[in-house]
Amino acid sequence: MPAFYRVIAVQFVSALADNALLIVAIARMLELAAEAWTVPLLKLSFTLCYVFLAPFVGALADTWPKGRVMVAANLLKALAAALLVAGSDPMLALALAGLGAAVYAPAKYGLITEMLPADQLVRANGYIEGSTVCAALLGTVLGGALVSPQLRNLLPPELAVAVGATPTSLHAGMLGLLLLYLLAALLNAGVPDSGVRYARHSFHAVYLVRRFFRENLTLWRDPLGGVSMAVTTLLWGIGATLQLVVLRWAESALGLALSQAAYLQGVTAVGVIAGATLASQMLRLEQATRVLPLGIAMGLLVPCMVGVHSLGWAAGLLMLVGGLAGFFVVPMNALLQHRGQQLLTAGRSIAVQGFNENAGILLMLSLYAAATALRLELHQLLWCFGLLVASTMALITLRHHRAGVANAAVS
Q1: Does 196 reside within a domain?
Q2: Rounded distance between C-alpha atoms, residue 354 and residue 376, angstroms
Q3: Where are the alpha helices (H) located in 287-345, listed in sequence order?
Q4: Which distant-in-sequence residues (6+ apart) come within 8 Å of 221 by Cβ?
Q5: How far apart are CA 212 and CA 379, in angstroms?
Q6: pLDDT 10s digits, 150-170
Q7: Cβ–Cβ < 8 Å for 54, 211
Q8: How many structural domains comprise the chain?
Q9: Short-list 235, 231, 222, CA closest to 405
């Protein structure tokens, strides 16, 4: 268990920097006077590697000790922060950080699946989800602090000119991100090897893509794997998009600046932590599918944001949405990881999960970028996203019940 808690610590620091990185990159885009529709492309560029490299990162995670793979991934993220410091395009930096995150995910979740027995996976996912969302909470708060006027004045833009970099008032925040990623890599170096080894296989691109396609079909066709995959894919796509929608909503409906809106995002994360903690204490793996109706309720709450114009009500609503999401996603993640390890391997199943979830993110972010370019009203976006979640979850729940898959089928 000490090794598991060390993985939690590494995950926390790395996710803290990832969430702060997005806020800093958005601030940099605003500083460069970029078009509003390009802001969703930042998150999209971070996600691209998850999708296109999915056939390869799972095989990579199963070939070398996963702790070593995680160190390399955090060093890639540190390089992304260094590119920001040097004045590179924020989208390029986010894409490189996304490459590190894509490599990191199957190694992290695969290592946890190898270290712990199946009956501890729900509780372990509660800890992981809690630490990840806590990092999201503090990361958005940290991102807001890193772009605040107080920190912007800490290092004058003239200093950048002196070292040959592009002038910006965000250098202090960028350097803070770089140090966080280096700290994550340092902590990662002490993560022990689980000792689990898999059969060697070809790294030929065509072979890996074909095998990955078969592995996708295997998980989607599995009754329990398929329902959990559908749920997590939908949830991640909507969640990533709502992260940007909340920033826009906080600015237009509540009159908050970017640094203050980032703090409001943290309120949602508090709810997710509470929901994830509650799920890890109340639910067992065989009870995972009982939470499906909560997805419908969560979707119906999203359009309620339209009528909220006070900070107190906004905080309460976002905390409730976050609580439902946290209670909902923890057992679904645990079920998907358990079925994935049984049907495939730890690393490859997480790569399949990451591919589908991030394909959902790409789709939703592309739709959001298009809607922003078309100047669709915010209340229309909220209704569309809320009804999409509720109706899709209703269909998933109905299909699961018609299939007659017993929760006791988890073994």
Answers
A1: no
A2: 30
A3: 292-301, 311-343
A4: none
A5: 39
A6: 776 666 555 554 444 556 677
A7: no
A8: 1
A9: 222
List the helix and strand counts (H, then E) for the chain: 16, 0
> Model confidence over 23-41: pLDDT tens digits?
889 888 888 877 777 777 8
SS3 percent helix, strand, coil of the chain, rounded to 5, is 85, 0, 15
In this structure, is residue 410 part of a structural domain?
A: no
Alpha-carbon dihedral sign for residues 357, 272, 173, 149? positive
Q: Residue 368: give the domain boundaries.
A: 2-191+204-404
| Distance from C-alpha of 298 to C-alpha of 328, rounded to nearest angstrom | 9
Q: Is 255 left (phi over 0), alpha (psi -120 to 50) or beta?
A: left
Residue 309 is assigned to a structural domain of this protein:
yes
pLDDT confidence of residue 223: 84
Cα separation, 31 vs 29, in Å, equals 5
Mean pLDDT of 185-189: 85
Q: For the whole model, what pTM was predicted?
A: 0.66
CATH of the domain at 216: 1.20.1250.20
pLDDT at 91 over 80: yes
The gap between the terminal CA atoms of the chain, to the nearest Å, is 23
Q: How far apart are alpha carbons 113 and 293 in whole angstroms?
A: 27
The answer to whether residue 198 sits within a structural domain is no
The first and second tokens of residue 381, run together, are 């976006």
| DSSP secondary structure letter of residue 191 | P
